[in-house]
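Posting this for the archive.
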Amino acid sequence: MQKLLTVAIPCFNSQDYVNRAIDSLLPGKDKVEIIVVDDGSTDDTSKIAEEYIKKYPDIVRLIKKENGGHGDAVMTGLKNATGLYFRVLDSDDWLDESSLLKLLDVLEEMRDPGKAADLVITNYVYEKVNEGRSHPINYRKTLPVGRLFGWDEVGKWAMGSYILMHSATYRTELALNSGMKLPKHTFYVDHLFVCYPMRLVEKMYYLDVDLYRYFIGRADQSVNEKVMLSRMDQQLKVNRLMLYELDVDSVTDKAKREYLYYYTEIVTQATVSFLLRLGTKEDEQVMQAFLDEIQEKRPVYYDWILEKPFYRHTIGPVRKLPHWFAYPLYRFVYLIARKVFGFN
């Protein structure tokens, strides 16, 4: 019988923590397919995976490949997935056991095509292990709980609450047919992983469990602020792909299209915030040039953003308020958001 869930674990020199990721999936037993994608590691990542294969040959698989970056490893996992549903688990993160078992119970019911969702949404938790605290993100105020629903039943998204890779479990066939393209050697492609299949999603299911545990704390982590600021070229690259390659304007369902606008807006806000956070005149000029570019290439989307009031925390203030006021305001709001939501 087909496995319920394939979980891809993209790895690059992950020997110090990949055990925890794999161990967190083993309670799913033969309902889960674990694909460890070794993206050109030079440490013992593959040897660790091979030890698991000896113990769990029907559950754990290893794919070794030349280094292509996180997105390329995700795509390798997806192309080799045999499970009914597919999700990604980064090698330094883990899944909660009881939540995983509840997810598998739901997916078991979805073997029936009449009960199947295109996307199953679960909560995630920022785990700041080094600080001894965590911050859960849920969707209780936005999504119906414990049943199938469509876009017409989606409520207003709370600030800081949107569907990340950590909360998304896609029907594998849908993800494969979504035209997803994740560029090689590029960070922050998880936004594209969410948005490409989202264009095809019609039926959703929200399981209100804190499944994904998102580790925050390594100095070399891609979401570490210093690392993110040093990779602004890649943030801009992903932001541009979201703006110009996803073809969101052709999505006919208004609620779905507006959600994809909203998601892109959040990423654009992050780009603006990071460029202003860098604090140089050159970075401020890059930011303004980027917004000018959006206005020229995506005028419908640009107008949609600027029509929103300032309190919705859009890029409007940067365009409509004096720079001497808007730039410090954005830097301040970014610091508050980082403190409240704990995202890096």
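The chain has a mean pLDDT of 88. The CA atoms of residues 69 and 185 lie 4 Å apart.
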